[in-house]
Amino acid sequence: MTREPLERGISVDPGTVAEAGLLRSGTGASGRGVRATVLIGVTGLALAWPFLSDFTVSLFATIALYAIVTAGLVLMTGVAGMTSFGQAAFVGLGSYATAWVCTSPVATAALGAWVAPGLLPWIGLLLGAGLTFAVSWGLGAVTLRLSGHYLPLCTIAWGLSLYFLFGNLAFLGGHTGITGLPALTLFGFSMASPRALGVLAWVVLLIVLWGLSNLLDSREGRAVRALKSSRIMAESMGIDTARSRIKAFVLAGLLAAISGWLYAHLQRFVNPTPFNLNIGIEYLFMAVVGGAGHLWGAVLGATLITLLKQRLQDWLPQLLGASGNFEVIAFGLLMLFVLQRFPEGLWPSLASRWHRWLGAPRLSPREAMSKPADADTHPQPRGFMAPAGISIAETRSQAQLLKASQVTRRFGGLLANDSVSITVCAGEVHALIGPNGAGKSTFFNLISGVDQPSSGEVQLMGQSMTGRPARDFARLGLGRTFQHVRLLNQRTVLENVAMGAYRTGQAGWLKSILRLDRREEAELLAEAQRQLERCALTAYAGASAGALSLGQQRIVEIARALAGKPRLLLLDEPAAGLRHLEKQTLARLLGQLRAEGLGILVVEHDMDFVMNLADRITVLNFGSVIASGTPAEVQTSPAVLDAYLGGVIEPEVIERS
Q1: How many helices (H) and strands (E) does the chain have?
Q2: Residues in contact with 520: Cβ distance below 8 Å, sequence separation at least 6, in sequence order
Q3: What is the tens place of the pLDDT at every residue in 45-61?
Q4: Please, is 402 exposed, middle or buried when counting C-beta atoms within 10 Å of its C-beta (0-12, 13-18, 19+)?
Q5: C-alpha to C-alpha distance for 171 and 571, rounded to whole angstroms
Q6: Contact 443, 620 (CB under 8 A)
Q7: Which of the two ends of the chain, N or C, has the fewest CB atoms closer than 10 A to its terminal CB?
């Protein structure tokens, strides 16, 4: 079957495309420039390290410790969308755990017969990580169910609670704290001096940034990115969003605990003061100023705030003629300035200006859209693939894919769906039509697990889905699009489509962090590329999804659904925003999917499109089914003509193209 490219007749404003940043972060000339800048900076610091003063070394060591905590906040807040003011409490857990193990007579007596004194700090690291894991998982399981302003308020509450707990436990030294911590030793080398421990802190920071970068450039990373604004979409792709949120929360807490462990052995003294709420706010401030969505923004933010705080503490008392915490006022004004002028933080703006200053060649909008992300690593395959992982004959043998029986949904006194029954079989296109407000989208949510029916039953692939979440529907082979497009607008089209293939992968967070998932990642991106080719969107693989037109974005959603290799496809107004030729091409694509054995349920307002495509049609009005049958039967139904069509459909529309 020949295909007419969907992009024919579609235009993208070059200015919009250019400003959107078409290539994925870290790729292309811009990414190479940023990496070169980072490499130059790290190399310069390493070469200058032996010649820096002791004060400057201590300052840079502190910056590294702050940046480790801030990097976790970037993952949790900037990427996953969970605001926390309590990270300083996790730093305290890591600090107090190692301080207690190294100085408590009870701990040293219990471990002395088994562990050499030089290994006690490393036992403290394990204890701190274990405590932080348990506490953060428990707190996350409770507080992450909240949304809006309730979540940050809860982080303030438990942050204060842990801070006062540190100060009121006698065996932790109360508000006086714990002194006499031993120096770290690594492979027999003492790290008693800040110059030596500072090197370890920066090495740990670089490892953290490498691991988080690997995570975000993976299947699990795409899932984390969807948590901020598209949790319903993520669940519909098979992602357990609650578990992903807890994992991000726990990982950020563990990074804070590691920073606290290093801090304790850098200072050789621990008390509650560095773990209060004000410090927690400073960590969040570092993330926002540097760039909450950018890992290297954590380093930039930690550097700026630490240096500025140090200078302001010296300058402001001299300027104002009085002592006090005037730097807090300055930080507040700085925050207002940054949020007003640099809403995404300073890092993306500086990286962009540095790229322009280097004079690196800039791709034209069309060239940028024609080059998929990682095109050299993941070449574009040719040809079509059946969307299901089984043969057409096997798909057709299970004729009934979806069965909704007497499904009713009430919202208080509003009856959105009233005893709606429908079936969708393999190898057919079933259309669901009706006036605005008829309950079509509500019914879509009920049969895809986004919402639960008040009564009735939904069966998918012969299994009852009562009470089961949307991710279970996806795992059984259901793919869907949305009435209001749900894409990650700042990510590339290729990455958005790869979201649909999430459930076909297996690699977890640890493999992603250690970059052991590259083969699977290549397969997922190759599958996404195949679906882009099938939907004639290959030219836009490297484009930002937010730069495309509404019609193109709807096709991207279809490609994303197909990337999950579904057996049943739910399309909510797929032709909205498409031009005539694009609708014809979409109809041919859906016809091909039907021929391959895929079951398709489509909601659409374009009657020409529906009547020429659907095998069966169900009509809703005020939440109830008023007609069901073939297109010809529905068009001649008096109830349909009176309630919806009004007799305006021309007789020739009945003929199938």
Answers
A1: 27, 14
A2: 219, 505, 506, 507
A3: 899 999 999 999 999 99
A4: buried
A5: 62
A6: yes
A7: N
